[in-house]
Amino acid sequence: MALWLRTSGASAMCEQLVQSHTPDVGPLQDSPFGPMFPVTGPEGYRPTVHGG
CA separation (Å) from 35 to 5, 39, 42, 43? Predict the structure, then answer.
């Protein structure tokens, strides 16, 4: 199962998570849906955040 979350600022969200030392934030990548990155939540789920 895949979980995708859309936001209007994936790049800013990724930067904020990295700055706050959130563990297991994947690298920001370009995609057909805009910038995207995976992150692992405290429950172990790994959603992909995307959007421009």
Answer: 12, 14, 23, 24
Q: How far is CA 4 from CA 15, 45, 46, in A?
A: 18, 11, 9
Q: What is the pLDDT of residue 1?
A: 78
In this predicted model, what pLDDT tens digit does every residue of 1-28 receive, in sequence order?
789 999 999 999 999 999 999 999 999 9
DSSP string for the chain: ---EEE-S-HHHHHHHHHHTT-SSBPPPB--TTSSEEEB--TTS---EEE--
This model's pTM is above 0.85: yes
